[in-house]
Amino acid sequence: xxxxxxxxxxxxxxxxxxxxGYVDAFAFMSFLDFEPFSNRESWNWFIQRPINxxxxxxxxxxxxxxxxxxxxxxxxxxxxxASLPSLxxxxxxxxxxxxxxxxxxxxxxxxxxxxxxxxETLQECEAYECPICSSPSANIVITCCSHIFCxxxxxxIIQSSGSPHCPLCRRALSExxxxxxxxxxxxxxxxxxxxxxxxxxxxKTSALIKFLKESRxxxxxxxxxxxxxxxxxxxxxxxxxxxxxxxxxxxxxLMTAEQRAGVIDQFQDTKENGPTVLLAGLRVSGADVNLTAxxxxxxxxxxxxxxxxxxxxxxVHCIGKKEAVRIVRLVVWDSIEEKMLMLQEEKRGSHSGSLxxxxLxxxxLxxxxxxE
Length: 372
Hints:
Blueprint: H1 22-32, H2 40-52, E1 69-76, H3 95-102, E2 106-107, H4 112-124, E3 140-143, E4 148-150, H5 151-160, E5 178-180, H6 185-193, H7 203-218, E6 224-228, H8 231-243, E7 248-251, H9 257-268, E8 277-281, E9 296-299, H10 306-314, E10 325-332, H11 336-346, H12 362-369
Parallel strand pairs: 1-10, 2-5, 6-8, 6-9, 7-8, 9-10
Antiparallel strand pairs: 3-4, 3-5
């Protein structure tokens, strides 16, 4: 029940979405005494009647016009040939898995017999599948017995077994019996000219730096917000972006409200030579966060519930914003991320409009995990 009081100013605050659309909205208008929509007859004539007739133009009478918001999906490659998988930084992997990536194997180029076998096999098969995981092999290695596997798959077998054998011919194997695929000439040249401290960046990080540099060239003071649901991603990005010449700030769930407020004030400051990139946790983008200084928003990974993403986006594209906003979602194609987007689009017509764990059916899980 709405109680009316004599007052000069009135506010309504809600922490949840308006469930029943414009029916609930009238209660707010009535309390605010927002004429003519606080009058039931006017509300029915200007709002409810057009809704009942299926007209979409009526909602414009209630909206505040914001600058244009452009949204796009940037597709990142899954991996490069004969290199570490470029989807994820090695530092994000568990220590035992990271060690398999860091292990140096002898280049097969020094063994003509195995090199010839490797080339013949790859030429015969358009997409060679690892016999262990039955997936297209990324970062392949060949054994002394001429069998080809994913680097991670065969190293796991060798490191977890007391007396490891080749899964196909049962020949005894050790790490010294594994040979890495040769590096492409173009990548070998770039490696030889780069400093020893350089490291290969993930596909998403490379794409992000490319976009940020383009924005800086167009407008040196342009500010961007980079959202991720993983704190470790934000920590690693801060180091990488600093090396690329960007001044960054970071907020995450481990910071106090006072610390977050201080960081946001620094980011909102328009003084020259200030930080231009804010790395933010997706869950700390609550209603008390104002990030209108930014003109571009990057999402490092998709999120199950689209409403969480939209709330984060609204911290930039909200009242007080005067410039157009660009939204970029970084997605690894041919991966579970692509399938998440497809599944979200399929379920967009549902009552929630979001993909939630409880809404997933068995066939949805099969689709996400590529289970036949």
